[in-house]
Amino acid sequence: MRDSPIQIGSISLQGFEIPTSVRFGGRHRLAVHNLSGGRRIVERLGPDDGEVAFQGTCSGPDAEARVRALDDLRLSGAVVWLTWESFRRRVIVSNFVAEYHSPWWIQYKMSCVVAHQTGTRTSQTPTILALISADFGNASSAVAGSPLSLTALQSALFDTNAMTTGTSAQAQAAAAVGTALDAINSQIAVQSTLVAAPPGTHSGPGSFSQALPSLVSNAAQLAAAVSARSYVGRIGLNLSSSGD
After folding, report:
1. Helix axes 128-143, 205-240, angle to 10 degrees
2. Is the pTM of this model over 0.70?
């Protein structure tokens, strides 16, 4: 890179200040959720850039002034542009170390935290799949112990192409949402009837006390079904917007 211009902030590196190489890169953050049956949901949370690091030597009669200017970037904590060749990053100098050999020969090492780079977002919002996964988990918890089962919905939602617009997998997932909502609505209708039914016109206090546990159980299943319906309904809305 000796002949390649590199600039950080307002400072254009020159001569021996230009590094022979620049280390950069990073990873893509992933959240992996392992489900029953060996299924796996992988949430892509966005890029996580590692530090950009390079080193060189300030030389000549203004070596000390040049080193001070570079170190001032660390001291200020300012967000500045770092550019070389076709690469462009907004960075903060996180580490600067100089080795003073003489007034005209001072080696340095610099590391920069990437605040932003062209083509990426500075903040990440939860993915549609993450929202659907969370709602499905809540719906499953709500119906646990009730006659309702969301196994078919789970299989359809977490198919590889369920979030891809126009695929048969997405159509099947949407159909599974509709089927689940139909089953939940039927359960709500049944439990509503049982909860609203009077204990009997000729029943005495003893009969009512015997019927009370069943009434409480029916009310609990009604509340669970209503809760599950809200989560599954939102799954359907998010599924329909997954290709937007």
Report:
1. 170
2. no
CA distance 148 to 146: 5
Looking at domain 6-117, does it have CATH number 2.40.30.200? yes
Helix axes of 168-196 and 205-240: crossing angle, nearest 10 degrees: 160
Question: Which stretches of 72-230 are assigned E, i.e. beta strand?
Answer: 79-84, 87-102, 105-117
Contact 195, 222 (CB under 8 A): yes
Report CA 6 to chain centroid distance, whole Å: 34
Which burial class, exposed, middle or buried, applies to 89 when counting CB atoms under 10 A from its CB (0-12, 13-18, 19+)? buried
CB 140 within 8 A of CB 153: no
Token pair belonging to 190: 């049944």
Domain boundaries, the chain: 6-117, 128-240
Tens place of pLDDT per residue across the chain (244 aa):
655 689 999 899 999 999 999 999 999 888 888 877 788 888 888 888 999 999 999 999 999 999 999 999 999 999 999 999 889 899 999 999 999 999 999 999 999 999 887 655 444 335 778 888 889 999 999 888 888 889 999 999 887 778 777 778 888 999 999 999 999 999 899 888 887 776 654 455 555 555 567 777 788 888 888 999 999 999 998 888 765 5
Question: Which residue, chain included where needed, has tokens 């200017």?
Answer: 69
